[in-house]
Amino acid sequence: MTPAQMQSRIVRYGELKPCRTAFIDAHTPGSDQKENFTIIGGGVSESADQHVHIAIPHGFNIGAAGQPPKCRNSLHSHRTAEVFFVLSGRWRFFWGRWGKAGEVVLERGDIFNIPTGIFRGFENIGDDYGMIMAILGGDDAGGGVIWAPQVIEDAAAHGLVLSEKGKLYDTKKGQSLPAGVKPMPLLTEDELKAYPEPTTAEVVPTCVARYWDMVALADRKPVKVIGETGMLRDRPGFEVDLVTRGSASDSLHSHDRPSVLMPVTGHWRVFWEGGETVLAPGDTMSVPENLSHGAMPSMTGDAALYHIVATDDPAGPTWKG
Fold this sequence. Notes:
Blueprint: H1 3-6, E1 10-11, E2 35-40, E3 52-54, E4 60-67, E5 72-77, E6 82-88, E7 91-95, E8 102-106, E9 111-114, E10 120-124, E11 130-137, E12 146-147, H2 149-156, E13 160-162, E14 168-170, H3 189-192, H4 200-207, E15 208-209, H5 211-217, E16 223-227, E17 232-233, E18 238-244, E19 249-253, E20 259-265, E21 268-272, E22 275-279, E23 284-287, E24 293-297, E25 304-310
Parallel strand pairs: 2-3, 16-17
Antiparallel strand pairs: 1-23, 2-4, 4-11, 5-10, 5-12, 6-9, 6-11, 7-8, 7-10, 9-15, 13-14, 16-18, 18-25, 19-24, 20-23, 20-25, 21-22, 21-24
């Protein structure tokens, strides 16, 4: 594959196209300055305005959220895995029906395998614009987002209505639900009982991995972060490894399915049969299946990247509490 052919599989940080109306809380004060990005796969955006950078199926989706300080993403749940790692900024993740069951603060490089089936939200508590990168299980990302009832109610008060099929309509633009289309029903109290309320002590030890702990463990070989034998033991439909300067190798390898490289720190020279390129933090590269490739840091200093590849495990629930 030539470098020109590979360009369609590389999304540079500076070329990311944001959507500011991706979800139902896009007009709700406190959440109305979010930028959402769909990098690989269709994602779970509820807006027709969302740009998809790479549509090739990978067995998972890659997205991102960029937010200024004090901006938050409202409480929601997914039917498949949702894994975040912090690219920049300082972020508070919280969960539970009202967001009060537990919380954790993450910084650059930290990763959070958020349990499926619980309501979760997050906010930028840093001083500058921050970015978090997301991995969602499955090619269809589980059929969309399940919102806490109060999020749907708050959104309606600010002009956004979600249809029962998960499509957004903006009444401020004169839009309304088409004839015969019903609004998204609110979860009932009985349905809400099915959503667990795990504590911080229950979630963090098995779902959060700190960047510098991973770097220390990856001093000689890549560390498996998420997987059956990983630091965070789970089988969400994909595996995540962290590669560092100490564990990078100039030998070529390949996979029988597409894989993804996402630098956290440092610049990385990625080479393959036919060419090479350099990736920087925030860049995302999709490597075709069966293509021999490798990656090495191209400059001195701290260097780490996440490597993601799908597995044959179903992209189903992860919370076992």
